[in-house]
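User: My instructor asked us to take a sequence, write out its structure as tokens, and then describe one feature of it. I'm not sure where to start. Here is the sequence I was given:
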Amino acid sequence: MGQAREAVHKFFAGRAGVLATMHDKERVIIPLLSEALGITLIVPRGFDTDRFGTFTGDVPRAGNQAEALRAKALAASEKYGLTLGVASEGSFSPHPLLPFATLNLELVLLLDREKGLELIGEASTTETNYARRAVQNLGEALEFAYQSGFPSHGMVVKVNELYNQAQDLAKGLNTEALLAQAVKLALAKSSTGHIYVETDMRAHFNPLRMKCIAEATRNLVDKVYNLCPACGWPGRARVLRRGLPCSLCGEATEQVQGVEHNCLRCGHIACEVDLNRTTADPRWCAYCNP
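Assistant: Let's start with the prediction itself. The structure tokens for your sequence are:
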């Protein structure tokens, strides 16, 4: 680890970059990256990351999650004349395997325009309070809010469920007074007698999401430290090699045989094989257990 740290610090020696955020993500990202990579990151004031998309839907996301992430890092690094750009982007969707569970996926990008390096750390979790509810009065709004982690987690109030004009949307509600005022104003504008309260998923109002962003940043550091033994370039791609043979019939299974590390710069390939796992249990074999 000491040699890898020395090599990484040498790779980024004297470099400074910009972290594209207006939601306090520097609290978890900067300490981790500065320590691990030896770089200096600034957080520009007045750089509007909301123009790349908002969780509340008032600004559509610019492309998919990875495209919005890249757009933020590139725009910030170009605007402030720095060759390192860092950004994060989150998403929430139904879990592909767990019914009724929501999956929070966080991506953190390190973009090095000088050396042509682009690495993305990622983390996912079901530990999220992502939710919304239609309410008809302040009591219902408060009940939902406290069930969702209020006041340490902020709330959002909308007059309408989908698209909202700016005046029909209140964010960052983290006191009863602010929530009560927003609910009162929204109900006065509602033509249906109900409004919508949802969790504020912006990082500075959502500690659970901030926790996942920190994990994605650690994953990014791990990827940077995956150095090529041939050319020393950081960020080797890590690919699982499947095909562990069945212990009964010898046919290849989908079980992991080893991990392959591919250098995207020089093409060097190295494979790590688990010597303790030479065969797979027949229950994982498509021939013995179809």
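For the description part of your assignment, you could build on this observation: Residues 130 and 261 are 36 Å apart (CA to CA). Try explaining in your own words what that tells you about the chain.
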